[in-house]
Amino acid sequence: MEMLNKSISGAVERPVKILQFGEGNFLRGFVDYMVDVANEKGVFDGSVAIVKPIAYGSLDMFHEQENQYTVMLRGIEDGKEKVETRVITSVADSVDCIGEYERYAEYAKCETLRFVVSNTTEAGIVYDETDDFNALPPKTYPGKLTKFMYERYQHFNGASDKGLILIPCELIENNGGNLKNCVLQFAKLWNLGEEFISWIETDCVFCSTLVDRIVTGYPREEAESIWEKLGYKDNLLDTAEVFALWVIESDKDITEELPLDKAGLPVIFTDNQKPYRERKVRILNGAHTSFVLASYLAGNDFVKESMEDADVRKFMMTTVFDEIIPTLTLPKEELVAFANAVIERFENPYIKHALLSISLNSTSKWKSRCMPSLIGYIEKTGEIPSHLAFSLAALMSFYTGSEIKDSALIGHRNSEEYKILDDAAALEFFAAHSAEDSLSFTKAYLSNNGFFGRDLTEFAGLVEKVAGYVDDIRTLGMREAIKKVNA
After folding, report:
1. Closest listed residue to residue 395, CA positions, set 432, 437, 446, 320
2. Which residue of 16, 130, 303, 388 has the fewest CB atoms within a 10 Å radius of its CB?
3. Distance (Å, rounded) from C-alpha 4 to C-alpha 232?
4. pLDDT per position as a tens digit, 302-359
5. 20, 21, 87, 167, 261 from 38: Cα distances, Å
6. Over 80: is that where the pLDDT of 67 sits?
């Protein structure tokens, strides 16, 4: 069977407009996929040059396949199972910035280059004063970017139309602002001059983004059977869910230059991404955090299995539609549509999302994902939201244990042990308090500023309600307690 290449894909040569730091599955199944669609629809005419930003790994497979690969989207859409396969032809080149520094550096002189996208992990956008401008290249991503931009600035004599639009996809809040701050710090550290700093400030655009798509990557167990259907080998085959959302926040209008939305793609350009980030965190992540611990203790192991459990599903639906959505600011129809898409994502038969993996660091997750909805509901209605309050009791019940072993608190589901993974202070708190009576345990937890940044016992009736749910879980068992709160 022939390896995928340009003769099979029919790739069209297009000018390189995007430099992409990161060759991983996410960017290939998200950004490069969208660029490919936009090219096909005739609204964008550009290609991507991928940069491998770290020493680890190899680009051999990219070179063997002439940078062509397949994206397979699989999931539920409008209640029906959907599978979409697309050969991605938008990647024109792949270069190792460490092993091929000179070839990589040439892209700073590229006339058509306009955008830089990146996904260098949450730890990638960092300022390190020990980084060296003279290194080939500097070790940090912002250091590499600063030197690259400086060489571009010099080559084009500071031309304003040769500034760059930076679109980081790292999963940190205000990723564009953080990246810009790092670049400016390096420019000052390395004495690159006030005129270069002015060029960065005036002629370059740093966008902050919200990205959302589960990219499951190379389907190792299914690869050969998929090749048979495709009719070619593809060692870069990339799988992902159907759902996607890319919110791009910018002070300047970049929609004419990057008209992805004109191709019908799920891209939102805005000057304020906060409502969209809040929607994702509160509905998608908040739903996860509010039901997974209860679902696990009710006997389930995976998200999809939880959605097939009538009791857990009803709990989740009530939490989202009756308690979370009323606290958000976007139009209700947008919120409901997003929530319905989230439910279809939870039902995706191609993704096995383990509840225990989601349970990691649940104390901090509850604070960021669920607490704003709980407080917002109380402030809006004057009442305690029953299901969000129950999620606190479920967390306390999941975190019940007395033995810490190998940096994990040991919990029990019936006779089965499971590991509770969180920071040491959280584990020590629960090991010390979880054997107390329900009311004492609840008071100790809700009054702990370390968990919530405030004392939640100030909300009248919350302690009693949560303690009552802890009692129900202890005496009735999790499943019967869920049925009771759902009634």
Report:
1. 446
2. 130
3. 6
4. 999 999 999 999 999 999 999 999 999 999 999 999 999 999 999 999 999 999 999 9
5. 17, 20, 14, 17, 9
6. yes
CB-based contact 304:353 (threshold 8 Å): yes
What angle, rounded to 10 degrees, do the helices at 478-486 and 286-297 form?
A: 130
Coil/strand/helix, residue 228 = helix
Q: At CB < 8 A and 24+ separation, what contacts does 482-485 make?
A: 482/294, 482/298, 482/311, 482/312, 482/315, 482/390, 483/311, 485/315, 485/386, 485/387, 485/390
- Tokens 């680009």 map to which residue? 59
352: three-class secondary structure by DSSP: coil
Average pLDDT over residues 423-446: 97
List strand residue ranges (DSSP E) for 176-231, in order: 205-206, 208-212, 215-217
Q: Residue 32's beta-bridge partner residues?
A: none
Q: Cα separation of 375 and 380, whole Å?
A: 9
The C-alpha atoms of residue 418 and residue 409 are separated, in whole angstroms, by 8
Helix, strand or coil, per DSSP, at residue 230: helix
Q: For residues 478 and 118, what is the distance between their CA atoms, to the nearest angstrom?
A: 43
Q: Is 385 helix (H, G, I), strand (E, B) or coil?
A: coil
- The CA-CA-CA angle for residues 170, 118, 357, to 5°, reads 35
Tokens of 483: 């049925």
Buried b (16+ CB within 10 A) or exposed e, 211-231: bbbbbbeebeeeeeeebeebe
Q: For residue 215, is it left (φ>0), alpha (ψ between -120 and 50) or beta?
A: beta
